[in-house]
């Protein structure tokens, strides 16, 4: 107790959150010294908000993928799906933000699942860890894929004679991946200005795009935007087409937990991380809805737009009538997605480091090390970069197989969100548990069970549609491999548990707060 008081004084902070954080950091340095070291807190409040806000870049991601929803559900799916996804994701992020306030840790979902599991915490912690790590690696793959598609689309737009090859996309993905890999060596120096530039572009260019389209583009009828429900993909049931089209607007709003994986480097993380997560989802959901609704009202000729390899190019071109202006608009979208990739790359490397620190991965001692000079998990960063390069090779042999790694993140991340929310929901209703829930500064109170329940209903609804193929008839080219691959990862994790995981994996222990909030 005397030591805790000394550390509190040393912290130089007058509020309880910062004082407790100083105590916890000292304990971490002592307890984890033999595991490869700990990270240092250096991310301030503004950078925390910008990190999560730009990481999602929801309206930009929707802008370069909305063509898939035009065939499944159409404009009505995009408009009403954006509202549903925004509301549902807000329930999900609020539920997880409460747990982030209790236990702000890099491991996030797998640690919370282990903490609140009614039984077998080690088993559920390891299963959750494998699913979360794999989902985030696949999510990290989607950014260079999107950037590669944007570059290819611009080349075709400016040079119609160009015939893209699959290996061209792989080379582009390798080049795109190398940039944040090496930039992460100087992450601490680049963070503040890089995040500031990304956040400014994210907001300013959103406004510029909407103003440009509203002023210059032709208008679509109101009935086209709000009443057109298409099912041109072979799915005759409108409800199924709407559900499949939901992926276009639901996936860009996932990934809000990315800032959680940087929590060991965030100051006052119990307060700032939950705020950042909720702020990011709410604002990105509003921006995504506003941008996509504007695009539908100013889409011009839908047939011309749908026929383009990157439809947003035709939307801007029909509005401006200028190739240089169209190139500028699309290039800025590409830059914002790249800034998001920078954030995701850093976040996933920390997640791999944390899971290795708890002996979740084979050869964990190697990937749990923190470089003493760079103050970053260098080996985890190397593993992530190598994994992305290997996944990019799949694109050479099969575009269909590679596309599964694009749709996998939504499926994997939703599963990773569902498990801890279910466990905290059960814990709330339990009257026989021997210990109280260790609440943090952010608490849902009496609304907690209802918010948790609503979040689970939304996740289950989304999970019904995510594994379905986008087009029928289903064959080797149209098959959605996200479901089978996710099932394989779960079986692999169970096998790992049976072979060595049950002995190797350490259950992360949630330390009860020393202060009442």
For this entry, give a set of tags.
transmembrane, AA/rel_permease1, Amino acid/polyamine transporter I, 2 strands, two-stranded antiparallel sheet, 71% helix, globular, 517 residues, single chain, 1% strand, transmembrane helix, mainly alpha
Termini separation: 19 Å
Tell me the major beta sheet.
Answer: 2 strands, antiparallel
Strand content: under 5%
CATH superfamily label:
Amino acid/polyamine transporter I
The beta-strand count equals 2
Specify the oligomeric state: single chain
CATH class: Mainly Alpha
Cα-based radius of gyration, to the nearest Å? 23 Å
pLDDT < 50 stretches: 1-14, 512-517
Total of DSSP H or I helical runs spanning 4+ residues? 21
Find the structural class using helix and strand composition: mainly alpha
Q: What name does the CATH topology carry?
A: Amino acid/polyamine transporter I
Which sequence of strands runs across the widest sheet?
1-2
Roughly how much helix do the residues carry, as a percent range?
over 70%
Using the 3D structure, state the CATH architecture.
Answer: Up-down Bundle
């Amino acid at each position: 107790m005397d030591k805790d008081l000394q550390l509190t004084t040393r912290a130089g902070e007058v509020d309880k959150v910062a004082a407790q954080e100083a105590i916890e950091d000292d304990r971490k340095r002592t307890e984890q010294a033999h595991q490869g070291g700990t990270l240092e807190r250096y991310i301030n409040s503004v950078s925390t908000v910008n990190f999560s806000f730009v990481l999602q870049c929801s309206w930009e991601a929707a802008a370069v993928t909305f063509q898939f929803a035009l065939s499944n559900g159409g404009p009505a799916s995009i408009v009403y799906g954006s509202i549903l996804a925004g509301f549902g994701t807000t329930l999900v992020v609020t539920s997880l933000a409460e747990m982030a306030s209790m236990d702000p840790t890099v491991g996030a979902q797998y640690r919370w699942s282990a903490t609140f599991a009614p039984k077998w915490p080690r088993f559920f912690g390891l299963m959750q860890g494998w699913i979360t790590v794999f989902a985030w690696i696949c999510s990290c793959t989607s950014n260079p894929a999107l950037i590669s598609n944007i570059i290819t689309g611009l080349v075709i737009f400016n040079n119609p004679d160009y015939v893209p090859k699959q290996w061209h996309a792989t080379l582009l993905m390798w080049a795109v991946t190398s940039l944040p890999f090496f930039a992460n060596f100087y992450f601490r120096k680049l963070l503040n200005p890089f995040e500031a530039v990304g956040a400014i572009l994210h907001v300013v260019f959103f406004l510029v795009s909407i103003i440009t389209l509203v002023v210059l583009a032709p208008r679509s009828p109101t009935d086209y935007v709000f009443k057109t429900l298409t099912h041109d993909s072979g799915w005759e049931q409108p409800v199924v087409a709407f559900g499949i089209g939901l992926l276009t607007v639901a996936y860009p709003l996932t990934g809000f937990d990315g800032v959680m994986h940087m929590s060991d480097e965030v100051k006052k993380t119990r307060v700032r991380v939950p705020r950042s997560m909720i702020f990011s989802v709410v604002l990105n959901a509003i921006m995504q809805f506003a941008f996509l609704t504007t695009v539908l009202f100013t889409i011009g000729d839908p047939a011309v737009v749908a026929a383009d390899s990157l439809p947003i190019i035709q939307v801007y071109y029909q509005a401006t009538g200028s190739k240089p202006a169209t190139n500028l608009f699309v290039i800025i979208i590409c830059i914002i997605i790249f800034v998001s990739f920078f954030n995701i790359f850093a976040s996933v490397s920390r997640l791999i480091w944390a899971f290795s620190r708890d002996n979740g991965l084979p050869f964990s001692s190697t990937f749990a090390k923190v470089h003493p000079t760079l103050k970053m998990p260098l080996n985890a960063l190397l593993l992530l970069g190598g994994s992305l390069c290997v996944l990019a090779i799949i694109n050479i042999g099969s575009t269909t197989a590679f596309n599964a790694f694009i749709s996998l993140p939504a499926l994997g991340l939703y599963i990773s969100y569902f498990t801890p929310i279910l466990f905290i929901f059960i814990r709330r209703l339990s009257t026989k548990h021997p210990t109280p829930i260790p609440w943090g500064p952010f608490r849902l109170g009496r609304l907690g069970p209802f918010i948790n329940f609503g979040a689970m209903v939304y996740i289950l609804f989304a999970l019904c549609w995510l594994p379905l193929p986008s087009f029928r008839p289903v064959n080797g080219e149209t098959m959605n491999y996200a479901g089978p691959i996710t099932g394989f990862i779960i079986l692999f994790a169970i096998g790992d548990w049976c072979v060595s995981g049950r002995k190797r994996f350490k259950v992360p222990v949630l330390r009860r707060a020393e202060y009442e909030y």
